[in-house]
Amino acid sequence: MKDTPTMTYCALPLASASLAAPGPAPGPAPGLPSAVGRLDRARARLATRLVAAAGPDGLLRAPCDSRILESALALRLLTVTGVDPDAQERLMRRLKTAVDEGAPDPVQEAAARAALGEYVDGPAALTRLLGGFDHFTAGRKRLMFQTVLAELGAHPFPALASPGRVFEARGQQRWLATEMAALKVLYAFGTGSPRLVTEDDWRTLAPCALPGPPPYGNHLARTLALLALRHRPRYAAAVGARARELRELLREDGGLPFITGMDVFATATGGLALAGAGAPTHTLRALAAALIERQNQDGGWGFDRAVAQSDVDDTSYCVEFLRATAPERFGAEVAAAGRYLLARRGEDGGFPTFEPGTASEVAITAAAVNALAPDPAHRTVVEAAVRFMVARQEAAGPFERSWSLNESNALFRTVLAYDSFHTVAPGHPTGTEVLRARARAVARLVDTQNPDGGWGHVPSDPSDPISTAYALIAVARTPTVPSAVGATERAVRHLLDRQRPDGGFVSRPDQAGPRPLAYHVPLLTDVCVLLGLNHARAAASRDPRRTPTPTGKEAV
């Protein structure tokens, strides 16, 4: 990036309330942490770490840790192509260590053991993993994992009634179309029915044979594609070349990650965290300028550099950060992003993650609301989106787990969206229903807080910093509710007690993809915790009278 200001950072103002509701700051509210100085020092150390993560191009560097599934498939690719014994050995050590220490889920354990040549009951692994996975993608995920484990030798390929159609992914995101085409090819050749494969399938896979980073930043999709392309002689040389390049993509532990990283997502969310912590204007504008350079032609953003597949989640966070940083500078880019978001809106008023016409999701809809609400031109769209969220939560409970494995992720995002709605549409006829839904979300968090003050992915899970930070955002924004105030104080103590000597935090993986498989981007832990602590700090200066509740009494 040209002419990017150098991002230096020395100290933070101790009293930043930039994420608080607008209005006077009368001083610390009763019941909130009295050790404001300790809280501000923790935020300053976290913010300094985030600024230090910026790369030469201005984006925060947020690489992804290696994962067992991709490592098993990479070993399979190197084995069938017969290249790079040293890389094969590194991958084998990574998989053996994972099996010895305990894989994070049954499917990845099955994949590791199959790649190592050990017997495993693959179908049972799928049952254990997906038995409680209540999601619109569950059927597709079962087919995907069955086929992957069959390719790795864990069990035979599944018997399919209509194999020519079950692998279709029309209207889906590009890397999913690539994955499904690859799985179709692997199934066809694995079952002795290569005539199932069409020229369109080969064309879908062809970009993965080209040199350079994996298309869409997705190592899983590319590795599957290369395994499929090996079945067509014309791609043999390219597949071998890409297999030899794998050694450069392995992490220090010898494994291959799911994706290249989440630099765009981390820069947008990290930028919001830094803005809330009082970072200098030149630092924020440098991050914003780096994001502008990564905006896709359709007006949206992907999760990492060079990811041309935009999505509603990343685009919404980018819009929030650009608007918070310099709306007068980035009006055209924000407007283009708004058009991208509006084009994805579903008939039900909600928003999907990727392509229009696919299923709307609560957390993604909340993201779109937070991005669109400040523009009065979008009021009708925002109202419909909020009605979708309320109706979905009334029908199924506000506890969606989607791209995050946390209940608290969707809960805090809906709380923010409801607050955005009340800011732009005070006195709206649906206001009482919205307040009731907000109260339910906060009550769920208050009721499920662990005795140590933290939260886990779901109730009864051990506490971890990311889950706790998500929940803290919601409860800290509810200062008129005594139970939420107490939950805020306990959560802040929990987090501050777990800050490491280097200022950072370590957490269990939170992101999921393909859902429900976890993957980990360590920098996001610091980002999420700083966001949570910012909201707690803002609560200490917020006028409680400005937080809406249905009756003026305790809403939880």
Overview of this protein structure:
The protein is mainly alpha-helical. Helices cover 53% and strands 1% of the residues. It contains 22 helices and two strands. The protein has helices spanning 36-52, 68-81, 85-101, 106-115, 122-130, 138-151, 163-166, 174-190, 199-205, 219-229, 236-245, 263-276, 281-293, 312-325, 331-343, 362-372, 379-396, 407-424, 431-448, 465-476, 482-496, 523-539, and strands at 511-512, 518-519. It has a two-stranded antiparallel ribbon. Strand 1 (511-512) and strand 2 form a beta hairpin. The longest helix is centred in the last third of the chain and has 18 residues, at 379-396. The N and C termini lie far apart (49 Å).
Structural class: mainly alpha
**What integer is the average pLDDT?**
88
Write the H/E string, N to C. Answer: HHHHHHHHHHHHHHHHHHHHHEEH
Tally the beta strands.
Answer: 2
Topology:
Blueprint: H1 36-52, H2 68-81, H3 85-101, H4 106-115, H5 122-130, H6 138-151, H7 163-166, H8 174-190, H9 199-205, H10 219-229, H11 236-245, H12 263-276, H13 281-293, H14 312-325, H15 331-343, H16 362-372, H17 379-396, H18 407-424, H19 431-448, H20 465-476, H21 482-496, E1 511-512, E2 518-519, H22 523-539
Antiparallel strand pairs: 1-2
Helix pairs in contact: 1-22, 2-3, 2-4, 2-10, 2-11, 3-4, 4-5, 5-6, 6-8, 8-9, 8-10, 12-13, 12-14, 12-22, 13-14, 14-15, 14-16, 16-17, 16-18, 17-18, 18-19, 18-20, 20-21, 20-22
